[in-house]
Amino acid sequence: MPYPRAYLYMFGVIAVIVVGFWPSYFAVAGNVPWQFHAHGVAASCWVALVTAQSWTAHRKPQLPLHRAVGMASLFLFPFLIAGLAAITTVQAKNWIEGEPLHLLYGPGFMIGTMVAMAAYVTVYYRALKYRRKVWVHAGYMLSTPLILFESPFSRAAAFVFPPFMVKGPADFPHVMASIEWSCAIELAIIAIIWWRVGERARPFLVTAGFIAVEMLAMGFASRFDLLKQFDTFIGHVPAMTIVLMGFAIGAATSWAGWQAGKRPVAHIPGAVQPA
Q: What does the alpha-carbon distance between residue 73 and residue 124 come to, in Å, rounded to a whole number?
């Protein structure tokens, strides 16, 4: 089976998530908007699910559990996309209300989140479609935590590295710098995987493409008036409308991916076909 020690990487991802989001989410969970919970709970469950899949895939007695966890992902994925959609409503609201950081980078944050949603939809669909090809399926599933890994990692880096620390509005450019460097580290991780396993790491290259687009979107989106207008438009749409749209996209992805990965029905010469 591919990537036998991937569960160790996943434990590292979990640790970074806890450290990175501790001050802004876990430590103040009772005082954050509901959209944070929609995203935080769904994303945390997703990371736990991928960890469980990685662990059980390499232990034959637990292969039935591996398949059961995989089936559970079909039902969790719509909530994952809905949670990301919920975050865009908060980002747009902060932009409209002139919150200082979002006034500087708001459209970039929103477009970056939307690129992440598109990445998840693409990668998970392909993970389902190629679920019978273990290297391809494993690569796509294991690449999903990288899509938003920059978010907790950039926050965690701000606690440790002075160039990324934010002590006031004058330091807001450090936020974007930490995000861009975190994305660069994600690309470096993918390059290492490619160096180790070669062509079998192609699923990670799909994710790398989205990460590169996310870097550009977050870095330059705030310079375009059209994206500023789009951010304002999103901010005036009822939040539940955006969330339900995200849920519908996630549900459609689960259904389409599952259908695409079904075994083709064999045609038996001479057999009577149903009317």
A: 9
Tokens of 169: 């509005």
CA 245 from centroid of its chain's CA atoms: 17
Backbone angles phi, psi at 91, to 5 degrees: -60, -45
In whole angstroms, give the CA distance from residue 19 to residue 17: 6
H helices of 58-171, in order, are: 63-96, 100-129, 134-147, 150-160
C-beta of residue 216 within 8 angstroms of C-beta of residue 222: no
Measured CA to CA, the distance from residue 164 to residue 177 in angstroms comes to 7
In contact, 88 and 104? CB cutoff 8 Å: no
CA distance linking residue 127 with residue 11, whole number of Å: 21
Which tokens is 148 given?
């938003």
pLDDT digits (tens, 9 = 90+) for 56-111: 877 766 778 888 999 999 999 999 999 999 999 999 999 999 999 999 999 999 99
Q: Which two tokens stand for residue 142?
A: 């294991």
DSSP-derived secondary structure letter, 268: P
Name the residue type at position 46: W
223 compared with 190, residue with greater pLDDT: 190
Contacts with 202 (C-beta within 8 Å, 6 or more apart), sequence order: 136, 139
Which residues fall within 8 angstroms of residue 47, CB to CB, at 6 or more apart? 10, 13, 14, 17, 145
Instruction: Give backbone dihedrals phi and psi of 168, rounded to 5 degrees, phi first.
Output: 180, 175
What confidence score (pLDDT) does residue 221 get? 86
d(Cα 152, Cα 155) in Å, to the nearest integer?
A: 5
Q: Tell me the residue type at 22.
A: W
Q: Which helix (H) or strand (E) holds 255?
A: helix 239-260
Distance in angstroms (rounded) separating the CA atoms of residues 147 and 189: 12
